[in-house]
Design brief:
The complex is a heterodimer of chains A (234) and B (490). Chain A is an alpha+beta fold and 234 residues long. Chain A has two domains: 73 residues, Ubiquitin-like (UB roll); 133 residues, Alpha-Beta Plaits (2-Layer Sandwich), CATH 3.30.70.20. In chain A, 26% of the residues lie in helices and 16% in strands. Chain A is built from eight helices and nine strands. A five-stranded mixed β-sheet of chain A has the order 2-1-5-3-4, covered by helices on one side. Chain B is of the alpha+beta class and 490 residues long. Chain B has two domains: 89 residues, no CATH class; 378 residues, Cytochrome-c3 Hydrogenase, chain B. In chain B, the strands form five sheets. A five-stranded antiparallel β-sheet of chain B has the order 3-2-1-15-16, covered by helices on one side. A four-stranded mixed β-sheet of chain B has the order 8-7-6-11. The longest helix of chain B is centred in the N-terminal third of the chain and has 33 residues. The radius of gyration of chain B is 22 Å and the shape is globular. Classes of the chains: A alpha+beta (234), B alpha+beta (490). At the A-B interface, loops of A face loops of B.
Chain lengths: 234, 490
Amino acid sequence: MSIRITIDGHEVIAQHGDRLVDVAADNGVYIPTLCYQRGKPCLGTCRACSVRVNGNVMAACTVPVSDGMEVEVNEPEVADMRKALVELLFAEGNHNCPSCEKSGRCELQAVGYEVGMMVSRFPYRFPVRERETAPEKLWLERDRCIFCQRCVEFVRDKETGRKIFSIDHRGTHASIEVDVALANKMPDEQVREAAELCPVGCIIEKGLGYNDPIGRRKFEIKSIRERALKRKHK
Amino acid sequence: MSRKLVIDPVTRIEGHGKVTVHLDDQNRVTDAKLHVVEFRGFEKFVQGHPYWEAPMFLQRICGICFVSHHLCGAKALDDMIGAGYSSGVQMLPTPEKIRRLGHYGQQLQSHTTAYFYLIVPEMLFGMDAPPEKRNVLGLVEANPELVKRVVALRKWGQEVIKAVLGKRMHGIESIPGGVNQNLSKAARDRLLNGEDGLLSIDQVIDYAVEGVELFHDFHKKHRDEVDRFAKVPALNMSLVDDEGNVDYYHGKIRIVDVNKDTVAEFDYHDYLDYFAEATEEWSYMKFPYLKELGREEGSVRVGPLGRVNVTKSYSDDTPLAKAALEKFHDYTDGKANDMTLHTNWARAIEILHSAELIKNLLNDPDLQGEQLVITPADSAWTGEGVGVVEAPRGTLLHHYRANRDGAITFANLVVATTQNNTVMNRTVRAVAEEYLDGKAEITEGMMNAIEVGIRAYDPCLSCATHAMGQMPLVVSVFDSNGALVDEQVR
């Protein structure tokens, strides 16, 4: 059923129940995301897509649109709130973009640029996180995990359907974990997909990295904004 | 009344160091030291990182000679995965030449920075000139055309780096076993022919020739002072090829004495058999020396002066640099040159040498080759690697070990400035004795002479000790009881 909503004051026609983040993208309005991937179930973990809906701040990936909805995306206060959320993700981990192999391909880094982050306004926590290096083909650089849970939900053992990744503990003690036996069963292609799925440089393929020269890396070829808006614009 | 003079920090160098000079009651120099007072510790905090990140991570030590650190790390990783010299594997032509191109580009821009921006001001204005004049801004006022050429020359070197590594600073080029891209014909032609205000390679060579002539003019006018200034004996060390000529990217280590007789020659993978390091409580920079000769006799000089002393010649395909080198060698009748300020002569020659080497490479079709990486079998893994290159400031070494999971467990960096530590301290002492000894009044120019001696080595204390930070210069005079008598701040 067609409905009408407004995004930053502009009227938009959408289908009832569509996800707000997708509706915005289809109408040329970029809302940054880190856990959400179009076409996959929403996770709602990162909150980087926070917007104001009828006066309340909500994660756009979790909101089905309904008639008359008034959405503010680029209103300064809510835009700054998204920026603050991204800054917190940086402050809560140990993100070393200058030497990280995911640089230029990292969604967190790309979103950082999109929200105009120059530095975190929050003090860095410098958490102590042990690396997981036991799997034969992949490596968990936990310093960079933002707990988006993409890997937890979408990477499964091909044979049994069991989850290969999980999150242990809670809050500041949370830790991304991997079932080493299942990880060692992962075909090379699945390892590559898992590394690609990770929005940061946490899941990395052992021995690989930096194969794409500067200037030809994913988000240098096409920005994360362009990728999000690639579908038809109304 | 004895006194202690302090220069803190030494300026126009990379990193943070200070000098202390002790004078007795008759103003005789009793001691002089170069202290490196800060510490960074890259060797420690790279531990645990994935081995393939090491060259990207550790190049961040330095904002000047990052390509050297990057390449040293890359060579160590080649060894580690079984695609390196330690396994007897010769790198493919295209990746080796791509690596060399970036390396020579960096040497050109680094030497240009050191020579023209940091050193030439004293050559033109004198060590006694007012501090506000003897700097690159003074040069702009006195000789704007020279400065324009210098800026263009340095920019060209930066563009070589960018073409190879993707960025002017801290780019990415080398991966274990090779490189991640070749050089496009468009990038090659841009560097060869120049466009958008960029110099052509022939202009670069012309400017480099002028740089050598600049030293000759200076030397002609101040021969006695230049030749007498800090004549410091030391062994000389460099990487050399099978002909005994310097090879900035790869070779064996050769160390020669003042007669240019070989004191030691060895595969750099065996460096621990030959070198030991001493420490002093007054400096974070270590003092490497040849075990066999001991600390006093076995300290080496590296960098431009060390290299031109070691190298027998240059190849025929770099004719201008070869001729300039012959003139340099003739000046000391075939003996090693230990005149500290001649380091700047050597540096100017190496700018020219780099330019000619780059020209040859740019005309080599191997740079457009498609075979970029050797990927050995997993069974070739050695878990350990040593990389050595001739960085602008001298012989640079990276040594890593990693466990089978791929985590770095050990890193040792022996950088050029560290190798020069003993020789730099000798230089400080020599200059102090020449300029301060017995003088009733210590002038700013006299103190600057000490810095001139240090700057000749173009030391990178950030690399050598992993120090960071910058402060204004403070010269303090203390009495023998440690009380502050006088202090000047700039």
